[in-house]
Amino acid sequence: MARQQQYALMGRYNRDMNQRLYAAAANLSEDQLADNVGAFFQSIVGTLNHLYVADIMWLQRFAKRQFAAAGCLAEIAVMASPTSLNQVIYEDFDDLLRARRALDAQICQWSEALTEDCFDQPFVYKNSKGHDFCKPFGLVLQHFFNHQTHHRGQVTTLLSQQGVDVGVTDLLLWIEELPLYGAAE
C-alpha cells in the first residue's frame, strides 16, 4: 500500500471515529460534556475543541505551503486562526459537531488528493509558540493523525467514566481484509 493510500485511510478512519465519538458523547447532557473532570483540557467539550483547534492550526500550516493538494484546504486557509491550543471555539456541542463534520470532510478530500511525491519533501513551519521547524512532511502528517487518535482515546476514557461505551476503536476494523493466499480450499 502506498503512503498516499495509508493517509487517505487515516483520513477516513479519523472521520468515522469522530462520528462515533460524537454520537456517543451526544448521550450526555451539556453539563456532563462541559464539567471539568480534571482532564488536560478540563472537559469532554474542552478536549474536543482542542482537537478541532489543533487540526485547524496544522491544516492552515499545510495550506500555506506546497501541501494544499489542488486547493483542497482553501476554505480552511482563510478561517480565523485559533489563538491557543486550549481555545474553546464552540461551547455548544451541536455547533462543535457541525464544525467537526465539515472539517473531517475537508480532511478526507485533502488526504485523498495528496500525491506520493510530497511525503518526503521538507515541511518548514512555526509551532504555536513561534519556533521554527523543518521536518519531512509525511512524518508531520503521521503526527497530525496520531495526535487525533491520542486525544480521542482520552475522550473515550472520559465517556467510559460516565458510563458511555464508544465501542471498538481499533484502526484494524478499517483495514480491508486480503484473501488468504495458499490457504487450503
Overall pLDDT metric: 92
Please state the CA-atom Rg, rounded to the nearest Å: 18 Å
| Gross morphology | globular
The strand count comes to 2
Uncertain residue segments: none
Biggest sheet descriptor = 2 strands, antiparallel
What is the percent of helical residues? 40-55%
Query: Strand-residue fraction?
Result: 5-15%
H/E element order: HHHHHEEH
What's the number of helices? Answer: 6
Word description of this protein:
This protein is mainly alpha-helical and 185 residues long. The protein is built from 6 helices and 2 strands. It has helices spanning 3-25, 30-34, 44-64, 74-77, 93-113, 137-161; strands at residues 122-126, 132-136. A two-stranded antiparallel ribbon has the order 1-2. Strand 1 (122-126) and strand 2 form a beta hairpin. Helix 1 runs antiparallel to helix 5 (93-113) and helix 3 (44-64) packs antiparallel against helix 6 (137-161). The protein is globular. The two termini are 26 Å apart. The mean pLDDT is 92.
Output the keywords.
185 residues, mainly alpha, two-stranded antiparallel sheet, globular
How would you summarize what this structure contains?
The chain is mainly alpha-helical and 185 residues long.
